[in-house]
Design a protein that fits this description.
By secondary structure, this protein is an alpha+beta fold. The strands form 2 sheets. The protein has a 5-stranded antiparallel sheet with strand order 5-6-7-4-8, covered by helices on one side. A 3-stranded antiparallel sheet has the order 1-2-3. It contains 10 helices and 8 strands. Helix 1 packs across helix 4 and helix 4 packs across helix 5.
Length: 353
Amino acid sequence: MYLDLSREQAWDVVRHIEARAPYRLCLLAEVMRDTDGPLDQMDASLESLVPMWEWFTTLAMAGYPDVPTDVPSLYEPRIAAHVLPEYADLARRRALLCEGLMHYIELVIKGVDQGARWDLWLQKGRVRMAQHQEPVVRLSNGSSIRLTNLATGMAYQYEKGQVQGARDPLALRNTIAEDLPSSWWRGGQDEEPSVLVPYLSYAGQTPPAIVTSSPLAALFGPPTSTPAEPFDDIGVELLLAVGPAAGLDDPRHFAALPPDTVAAVLTELDLAHDDGQPVQPGQLLEDGTQVFAPDGTAMVETIVADGALRALTVEPAGGGTAATWTRIEDGLRRLADSLGGHLASDSEGWPEP
């Protein structure tokens, strides 16, 4: 699903998730309070996930009572389009409470890693799986946790009894602990005040439009009157390298490219990391480093072998304009020419030097 979004639309999902957090935590606190749940024990410690999961799974088996069906979750467009009418309300209640659970887990993670943040999981290489561009929580050590999938997946598995151990009261706590370095947390911590109770102050407040409208509607809504610019009209996949066609099978046959020169050209062409930071020469020595045009026109990715930068792949990223693509292609072609190499489509054959 996330694979089908443009890069800007994928970041819209991240912004939606960040903006909705206090409202989903408020709803979670309200439901927990109204069902005599362990609201006072929710201190954002790892151990608090044990009573959280015990309470959550009790509601799951009962069909998520007391959870509204008129508050749109991120997945409302998919539910409306694909879920059978007789199961739609259950799917809505599950999705909404799982969003609250997800944001509580986020608080737990940030309690042990203040540098954790929302980010996109980007598939390296040319093959793209469905998880490409999925929102993840990026830890300060660079690893990521697929939090959006984790909460919903565990809830569904619990309901169906599909995974051994899913009904273990420690299941959620142990799952999160596995994703965190053991040095970041310790057992036996003193109980702290509930972090959920303060979010009850959001009750009755009107969420902003970014929360009430799902960015996934772009995938399921009716076609617009103005068709989008065809993908093939903006660029084709290209390869920049110096050396013989044998490098297509083994990049070590390509000559090493100078990282300093390449980084300078990429920066001049406004190609940068997702967060807008310019690429550094040393980062080009890591295989699969990706930089993007700010308007989503193109993505450039490194191919590294034996510790040397051997080639760059250039491909359309699904957005932007033909003018931007032409500027990027011309700039990279000048770079290739200056190095005695080529910028060409490897699918159509690679010219010998």
